[in-house]
Amino acid sequence: MSSDHRTRSSGRMPPPTPEALRAALARVQRLDQRHHMHPFTDPRALVQAPPFVMDAAQGCYVMGQGLRLLDAMAGLGCVNIGYGRPELAEVAAETMKQMSFYHSFAGVTNPPAAELAARIAALAPGALNRVFFANSGSEANETAIKLINLYWRRRGQPGRRLLISRDFAYHGSTVATSALNGLTAMHKPFGIRTVGHVAHVASPFWYRFGGDLTPEEFGKRAADAIEHKIMEVGPQNVAAVFAEPIQCTLGAIIPPESYWPRVEAICRKHEILLVADEVVTGFGRTGRWFAQETFGFQADLMTLAKGLSSGYQPISALVMSDDFSDVIGEQSEVLQHGFTTSAHPVATAVALKNLQILEEEKLVTRIADDIGPYFAARLTTLEQHPLVGEVRVSGLIAGIEIAEDKASRRQYPVDLGVDQLVGQAALARGLIVRPAGNVLVLCPPFVISRAEVDFIVDALAEALDQIHTALMAS
Ligand SMILES: Cc1ncc(COP(=O)(O)O)c(C=O)c1O
Description:
By secondary structure, the chain is α/β, with parallel strands linked by helices. It has helices at residues 3-8, 18-35, 43-48, 74-77, 86-98, 111-123, 137-154, 175-180, 206-209, 215-233, 259-269, 291-295, 322-329, 345-360, 363-369, 371-379, 418-428, 450-473, and strands at residues 56-58, 61-64, 67-71, 128-134, 162-166, 198-201, 238-243, 273-277, 301-304, 316-321, 388-394, 397-402, 431-432, 434-435, 439-442.
């Protein structure tokens, strides 16, 4: 069983026997299989094969069932300061003892919530100064959608309802945010309707769709797709463009440099709100505090989650520009929106401590000046591998494109699941990466060491070799 069990059992008590550990594991799996429905999991598969029980985490590693795995996904892009930091546990315990909970409805606040809102406003670019707290990225984006509708009503343009999103987008799992997602597989099973609510345009995914264009040319063309859609439906009907600076979830799609400034210019020209979903990229992942700074644009609204507390507490935020929040606040009317645990004192205190650690340990600058360039240099060596079409990296976010034919950028049929096979082969070598449909996504904790980056590259090279050999033999 895991080393953690051994650590916890030190002291006067004799360590649990292997039989006791096996029985404890079997109990967890049994209860889970019977009663727990998992997100983004095939429930039937879980009935047939027991769930993997993860029960400890430290630094860049997660532990469970006797395994210790380097998590190059930082728990879905959350755990930026690394797992198991006692400072955050202490802040959580102190805050719980001081004030376990009170809500923030009807004009009540608490000290860490006010401090955190001010800290976010100070870090956020431009006039993004007003913060609404929620509990997940989906809720932050859902809040954005509702407040955008309110904004346009207040501005006397209630017809502006359409949201422009992009293929390969991921903005969440609530009904409205699911409609923003750029894969029909996320709409169909639940009967999510996009018609009249959301229009999807092309993603700035040069590797797959750029053809003979240079990345710069393609970036402009992808931005222009937004303007074409605006003209097709009429600017007076468009409320906002909703976009992740890097589309992480569905492939670590890093847009060409020409893309973002042009998207911003198009939004300004047609007076359309621009929402940057920085749920993954926010708080340093690209080597700047926010990816808007990396790509040189300024949004009217920004959503944040994951890295806000490094995943130690469920907390998210919608950050609004002064112009936007002034319109929301110009009329004396209760904002009919909120979550019971918005601005939770424990979550906000933990997030504050997390931001303090990022600053004191200079973890964002480290990505820009040290570990980011090292990660990029080492990872791009994999481009020489016959299975790798492209390695794209920004800060500590990377996509490794699997290619059947490198010259023509042809992909393997998705059903073949080559990315899944490489992911499993990497896992067998102690490494977690995320297969995302012919691409492997990586976004390791900011505290990753050079030796750990070397381990990632070596494990991936071996995994790629193994699957390449198997494909050649089949
Ligand atoms: C860019 C982006 N936006 C929104 C979300 C939704 O966040 P949550 O799962 O916390 O609701 C995610 C989750 O992965 C995301 O990557």
